[in-house]
Amino acid sequence: MVDTPAVEEPFSPASGRTNPADKNTWFGHPRQLSRLFTTEAMERFGYYGMRALLTLYLTKHFLFSDTTTTGLYGGFTALVYLTPLIGGFIADRYLGSKRSVKFGAIMMAVGYFVLCFGGDTAKPHAVIDGQRYEVQVENFIDRPTSTGEEVRYVTTGSERLKIKGNDDGSVDLLRADNSVARNLPKGSFEPGADRNSLFVFLMLIGLSLVTVGNGFFKPNISTIVGSLYAQGDRRRDAGFTIFYMGINLGSFFSQLLCPFLADNVGWWAGFGLAAGGMLLAAALFQFDGGRLDGYGERPEGADPSRDLLIYGCAILAVPAVYFLFTNLMNATAAEPGSGIVGYVMSLPLMGQVLFLTFLISIPGILAWSFFKGSRQEFQMMLAAMVLIVFNVVFWTLFEQAGSSLTLFADRNTDLHITSNWSISAGQTQSFNAIFIVLLAPLFSILWNGLARRGLEPPIPIKFGLALVGVGLGFLFLVWGSQFAGSDFKVGIWWLAGLYFIHSVAELMISPVGLSMITKLSIARVVGLMMGVWFLSISVAQYVAGAVAQVASVETVGGQVTNLQVSLNTYLHVFTIIGEWAVGFGVVLLLLSWPLKYLMHGVK
């Protein structure tokens, strides 16, 4: 999972105080690390618990279409990785990391609590040849996990007809004896739903609060971890390894527990547990017993009287984010034949800003490097930009986990671990976290062992192997689909295999990304390059939503009308992106030799 730290600041002790890294250690590290580790684990517990439910919540409770759901999910996660740029800047100039983390934690906790108020389930309907009909659902339970026994009907005249989708996109309306009463050609059956506008508003406000709060929290707690260590302290990398273990432990437990509560109690309980985790994170940080005194304090010369203004502006940013979400949900497709310009102009405002900023920043920074830097500096910056572009491709495909892969798990995966024990679709996201926890120490041993022998692969090869790996993960799942049963569901272990391969790929690319940027960037613009790195991840999240939209399946009342069509649609998209990912990875592996030259010995 993508959780990249901010640039670490060197230790800066308060007047008359020695570096606490020299005494009172916790597993050989500053004792403050234990408090930061637990705080981060609980914050990630809240975020990933919410994320495990979000896609299912939108499709099953609010009955949004797959296209709307995955688009909104992609936009939300894109902003989650974009707002830290602003939050980090505000902390560096005005608030300091500690105040920023506290404020962000409170905003996120409030956001999760707001998500608990979802109201009644949306009411499904269908428009047939311009006439609206109510849809009745038998055996429906408003929970993340479907029972498989839900049946959807429309009443036309005196007949109550069951809805069944066909392979060619048409819809059959079936009588009680399963004879076809009416066949509706593709496009003549339009599913929809009536939603309470107040609860849709609350849901979007909740996501907006989480987005803004995350911008204050995410970059700054990592900065405080970096400040625990004096410049050159060899324990720093190991300290960050321990710290980021908290991310995966927190996410693993939340992705099991939040969906469990949502299934057995209600959506509100799942989101409420996420909120509880976030509140605990805030409490751990607020009531630290003085352990963090002197760390992450307000920068020298900053005016405390500006704090309330900053907090007020952050709260005012919530309606702005809400507007971006509504604009995203109401976007229309480009006219056929309008080309790339028409496509970009038809994008929601968020997409236009992200793409134009990314497309301008890459050549702009390279042009500046060419004219202002030395020949070697320009070449190193060129290598960094090439890797950033491939980084977008990797995370675009890897981040299908929370969208298309979760919907695939719900609709076309047999979720039984054993004959008597099954998990829910939301809980399948925990596979990645547990594999990272298990594999990360092994990879650390592997890289260290290869480095001692001078055999550790250079960064471009690691990136290339990661791209090949993410593609092979999708192709592995596609291959396993040939063993799907008559219910058009694939065994869960094939999906677990995909997450295992993706976790291996993640460990190839995620730990080296920020390090690569700091080493290849011209010192005068390293902060700007860090911004471009986070921007690339944000763009990837947005594009991931667009890719998931391609895998959209028609639903009525939150359920697909034909499981065979659903399976074929997902496998078609997974095959394409899997093959393209392997192709991109091979291209990068071929480019690794010229890139190695351009990097001038950076490893």
TrEMBL record:
What are the UniProt keywords, alphabetically? Cell membrane, Membrane, Peptide transport, Protein transport, Transmembrane, Transmembrane helix, Transport
UniProt-annotated stretches for the region Disordered: 1-25
Any keyword Cell inner membrane? Answer: no
Q: Where in the cell is it found?
A: Cell membrane; Membrane
Mind telling me which InterPro entries this protein's record contains?
Answer: Dipep/tripep_permease, MFS_trans_sf, MFS_Transporters, POT_fam, PTR2_symporter_CS
Give the primary localization class: membrane
Superkingdom, natural source: Bacteria
Membrane-crossing ranges are: 70-91, 103-122, 198-217, 238-262, 268-287, 308-329, 349-371, 378-398, 431-451, 463-480, 492-514, 526-550, 570-593
**How does this chain sit within the bilayer?**
Multi-pass membrane protein
To which protein family does this belong?
Belongs to the major facilitator superfamily. Proton-dependent oligopeptide transporter (POT/PTR) (TC 2.A.17) family.
Instruction: Give the matching PANTHER family.
Output: PROTON-DEPENDENT OLIGOPEPTIDE FAMILY TRANSPORT PROTEIN (PTHR23517:SF15), RESISTANCE PROTEIN MDTM, PUTATIVE-RELATED-RELATED (PTHR23517)
- What name is this protein filed under? Peptide MFS transporter
